[in-house]
Design goal:
Carbamate kinase; globular; 3-stranded mixed sheet; 8 helices; 4-stranded parallel sheet; alpha/beta; single chain
Length: 205
């Protein structure tokens, strides 16, 4: 199994990703958020915590970016519905931050997860015989939010089991994971490359 990693700039050029994928066999993709989205998510959360209404403008930009990609890639109506549901969840989370004027590292991990969750969902629905793989299903960590420590043995076991039964091309979220209590964590911001190495290592462990 080959693991290919595409960053935000590449994620924003999905046709190039599709072309590259076609030249490989037995491959899985770890994908970042679309270009600039993670920074916008952080900015929106920080502004909301200050009760600064300018966070709404950033939220609108985030929504427009993802709905534009969904339209351009001609994904199905049912897939677009899930995009909108995720964006609604993001909106409600930011509203909660705004109301309580607090943005904890735990909440920020959740906020940052939306970028990868949305990009992988959209692109997986634009590629034949592909599916989104939310890495939170497989990557298990402690609760050190913002810089979670991986449970390697459990994570490797999960990855190996998943890929033994998986038949479709896996489009995997980068840098997000989950605790044993099912709370979203990150492996430190911009650690999507670390995520790809984790998946690669699982096949040789």
């Amino acid at each position: 199994m080959k693991i290919l990693k595409f960053g935000g700039t590449s994620a924003s050029k999905p046709q190039k990703i599709i072309k590259i994928i076609k030249s490989y066999k037995d491959v899985a993709i770890v994908l970042s958020a679309f270009s600039g989205i993670t920074n916008k998510l952080i900015d929106a959360a920080n502004l909301a915590a200050k009760k600064d209404d300018n966070y709404l403008g950033i939220l609108k930009e985030i929504k427009n970016t993802h709905l534009s990609f969904a339209k351009k890639l001609k994904i199905s109506d049912s897939a677009i519905k899930i995009v909108k549901e995720n964006l609604k969840e993001l909106e409600e989370t930011l509203r909660g931050i705004y109301l309580i004027k607090e943005n904890s590292t735990r909440t920020m991990d959740l906020i940052m997860s939306f970028g990868e969750r949305l990009s992988t969902h959209i692109i997986s629905h634009s590629i034949k015989n592909a599916e989104q793989l939310d890495s939170r299903k497989l990557l298990k960590t402690n609760n050190n939010f913002g810089y979670a420590k991986l449970n390697f043995s459990k994570t490797y076991e999960n990855i190996q089991k998943h890929f033994k039964k998986s038949k479709k091309l896996q489009i995997i979220t980068g840098f997000i994971a989950i605790t044993e209590d099912c709370v979203t964590t990150t492996l430190c911001i911009f650690f999507s490359y670390y995520s790809s190495s984790i998946f690669s290592s699982a096949f040789i462990s």
